[in-house]
Amino acid sequence: MFGEKELRRVADQVLAASTADETEVLILAEDDQLTRFANSIIHQNVAERDASVRVRAVVGKRTGVASTNDLSPRSLQAAAARALETARLQPANPDLLPMAEPAAITRVAAYSEATAACTPEARARGAAAICRLAQEAGLSAAGAFSTGEREVVVANSHGLFAYHAGTVADLNTVIMGNDSSGYASQTDLDVARIDAEAAGREAVGKALRSRQPRELAPGVYPVLLEAYAVEEMLDYVAHLGFGALAVQEGRSFMAGRFGQQIVDPRISIWDDGLDPAGLPMPFDFEGVPKRRVDIIRGGVAAGVVYDRQTAAKEGREPTGHGLPAPNTRGPMPGNLFMAAGTATREEMLRALGRGLYVTRFHYVNPVHPLKAVLTGMTRDGTFLIENGEIAAPVKNLRFTQGVLEALSQVVAVGAHTVLGRGWFGGTRAPDLALGEFRFSGATQF
């Protein structure tokens, strides 16, 4: 990768070239490798190394943004000039804040040398282990194994300079049969903690068990949602309602409900960019240090995340959740956690008695943001639970469900949490057993 010294030099070149009243430089550097497999054969290995420089210039109350991935002095100077020219053409924003002042940034352990040094051969060995397990079972494996490094720099004309380097390894696979499929995924900072054999066994087991699925009528069923499904659900509701701008504009289900019990007391959700159990990032894209934000504490609506603009509107301190400019979404959580419980998966099945076991969701979309209603499909392992055990595979179902309503019907919370790739970082969640979940349609597969 580039390293802190080199990226500081790039940022300094832009700041020196800019004649704007204020200038901000955001550098996003990535070094990514991906090994993809299908039909139990590796068919693609790609590597990409890139760095983008985004320049934000302010003239009075006008702001403009320009970007480049050419780090030559001429290109950096041109980007600074374009940002300034763009700012001069924009309407004035009376609410525009001065850029952030320097603040102490907590360094977090987010970098793994093993991940950074991971070779195509190492990823191929992981993919081969999964493909071998699938072939031995008469099934077909598909998926991807990626490793990468990230560097982020935020610098501005007030003297702010923030640097962060991190790594991530991600493995996911879908194992297919003629009428069945199974899924597994693992994400970690350190590729040495990715267990491809275990992921393969998990997905193959699901695919074998889900053969000859039976039809099941739509309706309201108790469910055991694996962590994969919980993560997907959590990412969507976070996007809909866990940011301050959504609350201020009256389009969040959290609006007007702070301090109220909105879900079961066993549900706690927070955002923490400093926790190494996730994918840490110690500051946001404005250079503001991240803080832990309790969003739902013991079932009670506790707070949302803020950037500098939304925080100023309420006279608050920002929580370090600003996105790159120009940004119309407002602040977003990027390091979500849901608290674990104490139940094993077997205990959760017994507690439900009868219901549905859901491995994961896909094709998820919002239906009613203010009520946090989502719709989507089950996928890669949906089973009928009877007498506290997984009894039979069933064909996939479409769900249409209010998330807050579902989280108010908690039967048990799993003791183990799983880390997944979130929309803006990582999301770690447990399995959930819920008393009611609404399935609105059936499928033919």
Major sheet: order of its strands? 3-2-1-4-5-6
Structural class: alpha+beta
The low-pLDDT segments are none
Shape: globular
Oligomer: single chain
Structure description:
By secondary structure, this protein is α+β, with helices and mostly antiparallel strands. The chain has two domains: 195 residues, 2-Layer Sandwich (PmbA/TldD fold); 233 residues, no CATH class. It is 24% helix and 39% strand. It is built from ten helices and 17 strands. The strands form two sheets. It has a six-stranded antiparallel β-sheet with strand order 3-2-1-4-5-6. It has a five-stranded mixed beta barrel with strand order 7-12-13-15-17. A hairpin with a 4-residue loop joins strand 12 and strand 13. Helix 1 packs across helix 2. It is globular, with a radius of gyration of 23 Å.
What does the secondary structure layout of this molecule look like, with pairings?
Blueprint: H1 4-17, E1 22-38, E2 41-59, E3 62-68, H2 73-89, H3 113-116, H4 120-136, E4 140-156, E5 161-176, E6 181-188, H5 196-209, E7 219-225, H6 227-241, H7 244-248, E8 269-271, E9 293-297, E10 300-301, H8 308-314, E11 335-338, H9 345-352, E12 355-368, E13 373-386, E14 389-393, E15 397-402, H10 403-406, E16 410-421, E17 426-442
Helix pairs in contact: 1-2, 4-5
